[in-house]
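Example 9 (inverse folding). The structure is encoded as follows.
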Protein backbone atom coordinates (compact mmCIF):
# COMPACT_ATOMS: atom_id res chain seq x y z
CA UNK A 1 0.00 0.00 0.00
CA UNK A 2 1.28 3.46 -0.95
CA UNK A 3 0.68 6.32 1.52
CA UNK A 4 1.73 9.95 1.02
CA UNK A 5 2.87 11.79 4.15
CA UNK A 6 2.35 15.56 3.82
CA UNK A 7 3.88 18.21 6.10
CA UNK A 8 7.20 19.68 7.24
CA UNK A 9 10.26 17.50 6.59
CA UNK A 10 11.13 17.06 10.28
CA UNK A 11 7.59 15.79 10.97
CA UNK A 12 7.77 13.41 8.01
CA UNK A 13 11.08 12.06 9.35
CA UNK A 14 9.38 11.45 12.72
CA UNK A 15 6.61 9.48 11.01
CA UNK A 16 9.04 7.41 8.96
CA UNK A 17 11.16 6.62 12.02
CA UNK A 18 8.15 5.23 13.90
CA UNK A 19 6.88 3.25 10.91
CA UNK A 20 10.21 1.79 9.79
CA UNK A 21 9.14 -1.75 10.78
CA UNK A 22 5.97 -1.61 8.67
CA UNK A 23 7.46 -3.43 5.69
CA UNK A 24 4.25 -3.67 3.63
CA UNK A 25 3.90 0.12 3.58
CA UNK A 26 5.42 2.36 0.92
CA UNK A 27 5.75 5.94 2.18
CA UNK A 28 5.84 8.78 -0.32
CA UNK A 29 7.33 11.90 1.27
CA UNK A 30 5.66 15.20 0.33
CA UNK A 31 7.50 17.98 2.23
CA UNK A 32 5.37 21.10 2.23
CA UNK A 33 4.18 24.18 4.05
CA UNK A 34 0.43 24.50 4.68
CA UNK A 35 0.24 26.99 1.81
CA UNK A 36 1.66 24.36 -0.60
CA UNK A 37 -0.28 21.38 0.78
CA UNK A 38 -3.41 21.76 -1.34
CA UNK A 39 -1.56 22.04 -4.66
CA UNK A 40 0.77 19.12 -3.88
CA UNK A 41 -2.09 16.91 -2.71
CA UNK A 42 -4.08 17.60 -5.88
CA UNK A 43 -1.06 16.49 -7.92
CA UNK A 44 -0.42 13.26 -6.02
CA UNK A 45 -3.93 12.00 -5.15
CA UNK A 46 -4.13 9.75 -8.19
CA UNK A 47 -0.76 8.12 -7.46
CA UNK A 48 -1.30 6.91 -3.85
CA UNK A 49 -3.86 4.93 -1.84
CA UNK A 50 -4.17 7.41 1.04
CA UNK A 51 -2.73 10.60 2.53
CA UNK A 52 -1.48 11.16 6.08
CA UNK A 53 -0.98 14.80 7.10
CA UNK A 54 1.52 15.45 9.89
CA UNK A 55 -0.87 17.87 11.61
CA UNK A 56 -4.14 19.72 11.47
CA UNK A 57 -2.77 22.81 9.65
CA UNK A 58 -1.67 21.11 6.40
CA UNK A 59 -4.84 18.98 6.47
CA UNK A 60 -7.08 22.02 6.88
CA UNK A 61 -5.26 24.02 4.21
CA UNK A 62 -5.41 21.15 1.70
CA UNK A 63 -9.11 20.54 2.43
CA UNK A 64 -9.88 24.15 1.44
CA UNK A 65 -7.98 23.74 -1.82
CA UNK A 66 -9.05 20.31 -3.10
CA UNK A 67 -11.69 17.69 -2.26
CA UNK A 68 -10.52 14.27 -1.01
CA UNK A 69 -10.82 11.50 -3.63
CA UNK A 70 -9.01 8.96 -1.47
CA UNK A 71 -8.92 8.51 2.34
CA UNK A 72 -7.21 11.32 4.29
CA UNK A 73 -6.09 11.34 7.93
CA UNK A 74 -4.04 13.69 10.09
CA UNK A 75 -1.91 13.09 13.18
CA UNK A 76 -3.82 14.16 16.25
CA UNK A 77 -2.14 15.27 19.46
CA UNK A 78 -3.69 13.00 22.04
CA UNK A 79 -4.05 13.48 25.78
CA UNK A 80 -0.95 11.34 26.30
CA UNK A 81 1.30 13.65 24.25
CA UNK A 82 -0.10 16.83 25.84
CA UNK A 83 0.13 15.45 29.39
CA UNK A 84 3.75 14.49 28.79
CA UNK A 85 4.59 18.08 27.87
CA UNK A 86 2.54 19.56 30.74
CA UNK A 87 4.33 17.38 33.30
CA UNK A 88 7.68 18.33 31.77
CA UNK A 89 6.78 22.04 31.87
CA UNK A 90 5.63 21.83 35.50
CA UNK A 91 8.77 19.97 36.54
CA UNK A 92 11.18 22.46 34.93
CA UNK A 93 9.29 25.61 35.92
CA UNK A 94 11.26 27.13 38.81
CA UNK A 95 8.68 29.78 39.69
CA UNK A 96 5.59 27.72 38.90
CA UNK A 97 3.24 28.03 35.95
CA UNK A 98 1.55 31.42 36.01
CA UNK A 99 -0.10 30.73 32.68
CA UNK A 100 0.09 28.75 29.45
CA UNK A 101 -0.18 30.15 25.94
CA UNK A 102 -0.93 27.49 23.31
CA UNK A 103 -2.10 26.99 19.74
CA UNK A 104 -3.19 23.33 19.80
CA UNK A 105 -6.25 22.46 17.74
CA UNK A 106 -7.59 19.42 19.61
CA UNK A 107 -8.17 20.21 23.31
CA UNK A 108 -10.61 22.96 24.24
CA UNK A 109 -10.20 24.96 27.46
CA UNK A 110 -12.30 22.54 29.50
CA UNK A 111 -10.21 19.58 28.36
CA UNK A 112 -6.98 21.47 29.06
CA UNK A 113 -8.14 22.24 32.61
CA UNK A 114 -8.98 18.58 33.11
CA UNK A 115 -5.50 17.56 31.93
CA UNK A 116 -3.86 20.10 34.23
CA UNK A 117 -5.84 18.70 37.14
CA UNK A 118 -4.79 15.13 36.35
CA UNK A 119 -1.16 16.25 36.05
CA UNK A 120 -1.37 17.69 39.56
CA UNK A 121 -0.90 21.29 38.37
CA UNK A 122 -2.61 23.91 40.50
CA UNK A 123 -5.95 25.22 39.33
CA UNK A 124 -6.55 28.84 38.39
CA UNK A 125 -3.62 29.43 36.02
CA UNK A 126 -4.21 31.44 32.84
CA UNK A 127 -5.01 29.41 29.73
CA UNK A 128 -4.52 31.49 26.60
CA UNK A 129 -5.44 29.71 23.37
CA UNK A 130 -4.70 31.23 19.97
CA UNK A 131 -8.17 31.86 18.44
CA UNK A 132 -7.18 30.86 14.91
CA UNK A 133 -7.68 32.64 11.62
CA UNK A 134 -9.13 30.71 8.66
CA UNK A 135 -8.21 33.40 6.15
CA UNK A 136 -4.53 33.31 7.08
CA UNK A 137 -4.06 29.56 7.11
CA UNK A 138 -3.46 29.40 3.35
CA UNK A 139 -0.44 31.66 3.85
CA UNK A 140 1.77 29.68 6.20
CA UNK A 141 4.25 32.51 6.70
CA UNK A 142 1.58 35.04 7.67
CA UNK A 143 -0.17 32.50 9.87
CA UNK A 144 3.06 31.50 11.60
CA UNK A 145 4.02 35.14 12.18
CA UNK A 146 0.64 35.89 13.73
CA UNK A 147 0.76 32.83 16.01
CA UNK A 148 4.29 33.69 17.10
CA UNK A 149 3.30 37.31 17.82
CA UNK A 150 0.38 36.06 19.94
CA UNK A 151 2.63 33.84 22.06
CA UNK A 152 5.36 36.46 22.51
CA UNK A 153 2.79 39.07 23.56
CA UNK A 154 1.45 36.74 26.28
CA UNK A 155 4.93 35.80 27.46
CA UNK A 156 6.25 39.41 27.54
CA UNK A 157 3.21 40.60 29.48
CA UNK A 158 3.76 37.69 31.90
CA UNK A 159 0.20 36.49 31.43
CA UNK A 160 1.87 33.17 30.66
CA UNK A 161 5.23 31.64 31.49
CA UNK A 162 5.31 28.76 29.03
CA UNK A 163 4.25 28.14 25.42
CA UNK A 164 2.82 24.89 24.05
CA UNK A 165 2.70 24.67 20.27
CA UNK A 166 1.95 22.11 17.61
CA UNK A 167 4.58 23.68 15.31
CA UNK A 168 8.29 23.13 15.85
CA UNK A 169 9.15 26.37 14.01
CA UNK A 170 7.12 28.34 16.58
CA UNK A 171 8.83 26.47 19.42
CA UNK A 172 12.28 27.33 18.01
CA UNK A 173 11.37 31.02 17.58
CA UNK A 174 9.93 31.36 21.09
CA UNK A 175 12.99 29.64 22.58
CA UNK A 176 15.30 31.93 20.58
CA UNK A 177 13.47 34.90 22.12
CA UNK A 178 14.45 33.66 25.58
CA UNK A 179 11.20 32.04 26.70
CA UNK A 180 10.22 28.47 27.56
CA UNK A 181 8.40 26.60 24.81
CA UNK A 182 7.51 22.99 24.07
CA UNK A 183 6.62 21.33 20.79
CA UNK A 184 3.69 18.98 21.36
CA UNK A 185 4.67 16.31 18.90
CA UNK A 186 2.74 13.11 18.21
CA UNK A 187 3.80 10.10 20.28
CA UNK A 188 4.79 6.80 18.62
CA UNK A 189 1.35 5.47 19.55
CA UNK A 190 -0.32 8.49 17.89
CA UNK A 191 1.61 7.86 14.68
CA UNK A 192 1.03 4.11 14.52
CA UNK A 193 -2.68 4.26 15.32
CA UNK A 194 -3.32 7.16 12.93
CA UNK A 195 -1.59 5.26 10.15
CA UNK A 196 -3.51 2.08 11.02
CA UNK A 197 -6.75 4.05 10.89
CA UNK A 198 -5.85 5.35 7.43
CA UNK A 199 -4.84 1.87 6.22
CA UNK A 200 -8.17 0.42 7.40
CA UNK A 201 -10.06 3.09 5.49
CA UNK A 202 -7.96 2.43 2.38
CA UNK A 203 -8.63 -1.32 2.63
CA UNK A 204 -12.34 -0.66 3.06
CA UNK A 205 -12.33 1.63 0.02
CA UNK A 206 -10.47 -0.95 -2.09
CA UNK A 207 -12.80 -3.76 -1.01
CA UNK A 208 -15.87 -1.67 -1.89
CA UNK A 209 -14.52 -0.90 -5.35
CA UNK A 210 -13.74 -4.56 -6.03
CA UNK A 211 -16.91 -5.88 -4.36
CA UNK A 212 -14.79 -7.88 -1.94
CA UNK A 213 -15.80 -8.93 1.55
CA UNK A 214 -14.33 -6.63 4.19
CA UNK A 215 -15.40 -7.29 7.77
CA UNK A 216 -14.82 -4.30 10.05
CA UNK A 217 -14.46 -5.12 13.75
CA UNK A 218 -14.77 -2.73 16.68
CA UNK A 219 -13.93 -3.38 20.33
CA UNK A 220 -15.65 -1.19 22.95
CA UNK A 221 -13.77 -1.27 26.27
CA UNK A 222 -14.73 0.06 29.72
CA UNK A 223 -13.06 -0.40 33.12
CA UNK A 224 -14.72 -0.21 36.53
CA UNK A 225 -13.68 -0.22 40.16
CA UNK A 226 -15.76 -0.78 43.28
CA UNK A 227 -16.96 2.84 43.36
CA UNK A 228 -18.15 3.23 39.78
CA UNK A 229 -17.54 3.20 36.04
CA UNK A 230 -14.24 5.12 36.10
CA UNK A 231 -11.16 3.60 37.70
CA UNK A 232 -10.69 5.76 40.82
CA UNK A 233 -7.12 6.21 42.02
CA UNK A 234 -5.95 8.34 44.94
CA UNK A 235 -3.02 10.61 44.13
CA UNK A 236 -2.47 12.47 40.87
CA UNK A 237 0.81 10.80 39.97
CA UNK A 238 -0.58 7.30 40.52
CA UNK A 239 -3.74 8.24 38.61
CA UNK A 240 -1.69 9.40 35.61
CA UNK A 241 0.45 6.26 35.85
CA UNK A 242 -2.62 3.99 35.83
CA UNK A 243 -4.15 5.81 32.85
CA UNK A 244 -0.83 5.44 31.02
CA UNK A 245 -0.68 1.70 31.74
CA UNK A 246 -4.26 1.20 30.52
CA UNK A 247 -3.56 3.24 27.39
CA UNK A 248 -0.34 1.33 26.68
CA UNK A 249 -2.09 -2.05 26.94
CA UNK A 250 -4.92 -0.95 24.67
CA UNK A 251 -2.50 0.56 22.13
CA UNK A 252 -0.25 -2.54 22.23
CA UNK A 253 -3.23 -4.79 21.51
CA UNK A 254 -4.22 -2.55 18.60
CA UNK A 255 -0.69 -2.57 17.18
CA UNK A 256 -0.51 -6.37 17.28
CA UNK A 257 -3.74 -6.57 15.31
CA UNK A 258 -3.11 -3.63 12.94
CA UNK A 259 -5.89 -1.69 14.61
CA UNK A 260 -6.64 1.97 15.24
CA UNK A 261 -7.51 3.34 18.69
CA UNK A 262 -10.03 5.91 19.88
CA UNK A 263 -8.90 6.20 23.50
CA UNK A 264 -10.91 8.03 26.18
CA UNK A 265 -9.53 8.12 29.71
CA UNK A 266 -12.01 6.93 32.30
CA UNK A 267 -14.65 6.22 29.67
CA UNK A 268 -15.36 3.89 26.76
CA UNK A 269 -12.43 3.37 24.37
CA UNK A 270 -12.63 1.81 20.93
CA UNK A 271 -10.31 -0.28 18.77
CA UNK A 272 -11.02 -0.56 15.04
CA UNK A 273 -9.60 -3.38 12.95
CA UNK A 274 -10.30 -5.96 10.26
CA UNK A 275 -11.88 -9.28 11.15
CA UNK A 276 -9.36 -11.23 9.08
CA UNK A 277 -6.50 -9.84 11.18
CA UNK A 278 -8.22 -10.63 14.47
CA UNK A 279 -9.32 -14.13 13.42
CA UNK A 280 -5.89 -15.06 12.12
CA UNK A 281 -4.36 -14.23 15.49
CA UNK A 282 -6.62 -16.01 17.91
CA UNK A 283 -9.91 -14.07 17.85
CA UNK A 284 -11.62 -14.58 21.23
CA UNK A 285 -8.43 -15.80 22.90
CA UNK A 286 -6.81 -12.46 22.03
CA UNK A 287 -9.73 -10.55 23.57
CA UNK A 288 -9.53 -12.81 26.62
CA UNK A 289 -5.84 -11.90 27.04
CA UNK A 290 -6.66 -8.19 26.70
CA UNK A 291 -9.27 -8.53 29.48
CA UNK A 292 -6.75 -10.28 31.72
CA UNK A 293 -4.07 -7.63 31.15
CA UNK A 294 -6.48 -4.74 31.83
CA UNK A 295 -7.92 -6.49 34.87
CA UNK A 296 -4.42 -6.68 36.36
CA UNK A 297 -4.07 -2.86 36.37
CA UNK A 298 -4.12 -1.27 39.83
CA UNK A 299 -7.60 -0.21 40.97
CA UNK A 300 -9.51 -2.20 38.35
CA UNK A 301 -12.30 -4.47 39.58
CA UNK A 302 -14.04 -5.32 36.31
CA UNK A 303 -13.29 -5.06 32.61
CA UNK A 304 -16.16 -5.00 30.11
CA UNK A 305 -15.60 -5.50 26.38
CA UNK A 306 -17.99 -5.64 23.47
CA UNK A 307 -16.70 -7.03 20.16
CA UNK A 308 -18.80 -5.78 17.25
CA UNK A 309 -18.69 -7.15 13.71
CA UNK A 310 -20.60 -5.53 10.85
CA UNK A 311 -20.52 -4.47 7.22
CA UNK A 312 -19.16 -1.01 8.10
CA UNK A 313 -17.22 0.51 11.00
CA UNK A 314 -20.27 2.48 12.15
CA UNK A 315 -22.34 -0.72 12.28
CA UNK A 316 -19.48 -2.63 13.94
CA UNK A 317 -19.23 0.14 16.56
CA UNK A 318 -22.97 -0.07 17.20
CA UNK A 319 -22.67 -3.84 17.68
CA UNK A 320 -19.66 -3.34 19.99
CA UNK A 321 -21.60 -0.89 22.14
CA UNK A 322 -24.46 -3.39 22.40
CA UNK A 323 -21.97 -6.07 23.43
CA UNK A 324 -20.44 -3.70 25.99
CA UNK A 325 -23.87 -3.01 27.48
CA UNK A 326 -24.57 -6.74 27.78
CA UNK A 327 -21.19 -7.22 29.47
CA UNK A 328 -21.81 -4.41 31.95
CA UNK A 329 -25.09 -6.02 32.99
CA UNK A 330 -23.12 -9.06 34.17
CA UNK A 331 -21.21 -6.94 36.74
CA UNK A 332 -18.07 -9.06 36.33
CA UNK A 333 -15.15 -9.11 33.89
CA UNK A 334 -16.41 -10.56 30.62
CA UNK A 335 -16.97 -9.81 26.93
CA UNK A 336 -19.66 -10.35 24.30
CA UNK A 337 -19.27 -10.80 20.55
CA UNK A 338 -22.12 -9.27 18.54
CA UNK A 339 -22.33 -9.66 14.75
CA UNK A 340 -25.03 -8.29 12.48
CA UNK A 341 -25.10 -9.14 8.77
CA UNK A 342 -28.10 -7.01 7.85
CA UNK A 343 -30.57 -9.84 8.51
CA UNK A 344 -29.62 -11.83 11.58
CA UNK A 345 -27.97 -10.76 14.78
CA UNK A 346 -25.56 -13.25 16.36
CA UNK A 347 -24.59 -12.83 20.02
CA UNK A 348 -21.97 -14.92 21.80
CA UNK A 349 -21.46 -14.39 25.51
CA UNK A 350 -20.94 -13.72 28.26
CA UNK A 351 -17.37 -14.97 27.92
CA UNK A 352 -15.17 -14.59 30.97
CA UNK A 353 -11.44 -13.97 30.80
CA UNK A 354 -10.86 -17.69 31.35
CA UNK A 355 -13.47 -18.75 28.79
CA UNK A 356 -12.64 -20.88 25.82
CA UNK A 357 -12.77 -19.37 22.38
CA UNK A 358 -16.36 -19.44 21.01
CA UNK A 359 -15.19 -19.92 17.46
CA UNK A 360 -16.37 -23.19 15.96
CA UNK A 361 -14.74 -24.86 13.07
CA UNK A 362 -17.11 -25.87 10.29
CA UNK A 363 -16.79 -29.55 11.27
CA UNK A 364 -17.93 -28.83 14.86
CA UNK A 365 -21.43 -27.65 14.02
CA UNK A 366 -24.03 -30.37 14.63
CA UNK A 367 -25.39 -31.77 11.36
CA UNK A 368 -28.96 -30.90 12.39
CA UNK A 369 -28.00 -27.24 12.99
CA UNK A 370 -26.21 -27.05 9.63
CA UNK A 371 -29.22 -28.57 7.87
CA UNK A 372 -31.71 -26.11 9.42
CA UNK A 373 -29.42 -23.16 8.67
CA UNK A 374 -29.00 -24.20 5.05
CA UNK A 375 -32.74 -24.74 4.60
CA UNK A 376 -33.92 -21.51 6.24
CA UNK A 377 -31.02 -19.18 5.44
CA UNK A 378 -30.66 -18.28 9.16
CA UNK A 379 -27.09 -18.13 10.47
CA UNK A 380 -25.52 -21.15 12.18
CA UNK A 381 -24.85 -19.04 15.27
CA UNK A 382 -28.52 -18.08 15.69
CA UNK A 383 -29.82 -21.63 15.20
CA UNK A 384 -27.26 -23.02 17.65
CA UNK A 385 -28.02 -20.33 20.23
CA UNK A 386 -31.78 -21.00 20.16
CA UNK A 387 -31.12 -24.74 20.31
CA UNK A 388 -28.79 -24.31 23.32
CA UNK A 389 -31.39 -22.18 25.13
CA UNK A 390 -34.17 -24.70 24.51
CA UNK A 391 -32.00 -27.54 25.85
CA UNK A 392 -30.43 -25.69 28.78
CA UNK A 393 -33.72 -24.33 30.14
CA UNK A 394 -35.77 -27.37 29.07
CA UNK A 395 -38.29 -25.17 27.29
CA UNK A 396 -41.38 -27.14 26.36
CA UNK A 397 -43.11 -23.90 25.38
CA UNK A 398 -41.93 -20.31 25.72
CA UNK A 399 -42.72 -16.73 24.71
CA UNK A 400 -40.90 -14.12 22.66
CA UNK A 401 -40.28 -12.04 25.80
CA UNK A 402 -38.63 -14.96 27.54
CA UNK A 403 -36.43 -15.72 24.53
CA UNK A 404 -35.34 -12.06 24.34
CA UNK A 405 -34.14 -12.22 27.96
CA UNK A 406 -32.34 -15.53 27.45
CA UNK A 407 -30.79 -14.82 24.06
CA UNK A 408 -30.02 -11.08 24.28
CA UNK A 409 -31.45 -10.62 20.76
CA UNK A 410 -33.43 -7.56 19.71
CA UNK A 411 -37.19 -8.11 19.41
CA UNK A 412 -37.29 -7.19 15.72
CA UNK A 413 -34.48 -9.64 14.87
CA UNK A 414 -35.92 -12.42 17.00
CA UNK A 415 -39.43 -12.01 15.53
CA UNK A 416 -38.00 -12.19 12.01
CA UNK A 417 -36.07 -15.37 12.87
CA UNK A 418 -39.09 -17.00 14.57
CA UNK A 419 -41.40 -16.13 11.65
CA UNK A 420 -39.00 -17.75 9.20
CA UNK A 421 -38.59 -20.83 11.40
CA UNK A 422 -42.38 -21.08 11.65
CA UNK A 423 -42.65 -21.05 7.85
CA UNK A 424 -40.34 -24.08 7.69
CA UNK A 425 -42.04 -25.90 10.56
CA UNK A 426 -39.29 -25.48 13.16
CA UNK A 427 -41.43 -23.24 15.40
CA UNK A 428 -45.00 -24.08 16.34
CA UNK A 429 -47.54 -21.69 17.91
CA UNK A 430 -49.35 -23.73 20.58
CA UNK A 431 -51.58 -21.04 22.11
CA UNK A 432 -51.61 -17.60 23.68
CA UNK A 433 -50.73 -16.35 27.16
CA UNK A 434 -52.87 -13.47 28.48
CA UNK A 435 -50.99 -10.49 29.96
CA UNK A 436 -51.61 -9.40 33.54
CA UNK A 437 -52.41 -5.88 32.38
CA UNK A 438 -53.67 -4.30 29.18
CA UNK A 439 -52.25 -5.63 25.91
CA UNK A 440 -52.43 -8.38 23.36
CA UNK A 441 -51.85 -11.93 24.64
CA UNK A 442 -48.38 -13.32 23.89
CA UNK A 443 -47.88 -16.29 21.60
CA UNK A 444 -46.84 -19.55 23.24
CA UNK A 445 -44.31 -21.20 20.96
CA UNK A 446 -42.48 -24.48 20.81
CA UNK A 447 -39.04 -24.80 19.18
CA UNK A 448 -38.87 -28.03 17.18
CA UNK A 449 -35.24 -28.44 16.12
CA UNK A 450 -35.03 -32.09 17.08
CA UNK A 451 -36.27 -34.62 14.56
CA UNK A 452 -39.50 -36.39 15.53
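The amino acid assigned to each position is listed next.
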Amino acid sequence: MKIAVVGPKFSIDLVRENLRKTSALEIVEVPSTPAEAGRLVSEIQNEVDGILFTGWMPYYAAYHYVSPRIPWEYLRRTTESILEVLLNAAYHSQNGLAGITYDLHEPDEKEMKSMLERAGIEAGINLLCYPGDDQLIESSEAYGEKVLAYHLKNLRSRKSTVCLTGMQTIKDSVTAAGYTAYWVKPTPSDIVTSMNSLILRCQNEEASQQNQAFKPVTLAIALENSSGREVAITGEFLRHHVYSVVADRIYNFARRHDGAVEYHEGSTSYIYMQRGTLTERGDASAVKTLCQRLHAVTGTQNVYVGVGIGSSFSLAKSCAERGLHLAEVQRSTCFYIVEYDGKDEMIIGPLSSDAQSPERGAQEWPERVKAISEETGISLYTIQKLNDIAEEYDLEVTTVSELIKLSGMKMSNLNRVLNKLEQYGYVEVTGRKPLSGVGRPQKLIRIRFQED
